[in-house]
C-alpha cells in the first residue's frame, strides 16, 4: 500500500510528491514543534520547488480545516458512541484530540495539498 509511486506514500511520509526520494521537511519529526512547518525549498533529487507559487500553502489551510472537522467527528463518535462518555466529556476529548493531533494534521494537509497539484514521475531525479 505504501510502495513508492503511490500518492498515499507521499501523503503519509511527507516525501517529495514528484520523485518520493526525500522528505519535503527539514525535520522529519512533526513533534519538533518549532520546525513543524519548516520545509526544504527544493527537492535535491528532482529539483521540484515545493512552494509552487508564493503563499502556495495557504490553500492547505482549507484542507487542514476539513481534516480537523473529521478529527473532531471521529473523536466524538469514538468517545460518545463507543465509550459512552457524557456530552461534556466528549467535547473535552475533541479539544484534546485536536491539540494532540495538530502537528500531524498540519503536515498531512500540506502533503495532501501538494499532492493534488504534483504527480509522481518515475523518471524524475534520475540522471
Ligand atoms: Zn523530488
Explain how this protein is built.
It is elongated, with a radius of gyration of 17 Å. The protein is mainly alpha-helical. Helix 1 (7-13) crosses helix 3 and helix 2 packs antiparallel against helix 3. It has three helices and no strands. It has one domain. 48% of the residues lie in helices and 0% in strands. It has helices at residues 7-13, 60-82, 87-117. It starts with 6 loop residues before the first helix and ends in a 10-residue tail after the last helix.
* Ligand species: zinc ion
Instruction: Indicate the low-confidence ranges by residue numbers.
Output: none
Q: Report the β-strand fraction as a percent range.
A: under 5%
| Mean model confidence by pLDDT | 93
* Termini separation: 27 Å
Short overview:
By secondary structure, the chain is mainly alpha-helical.
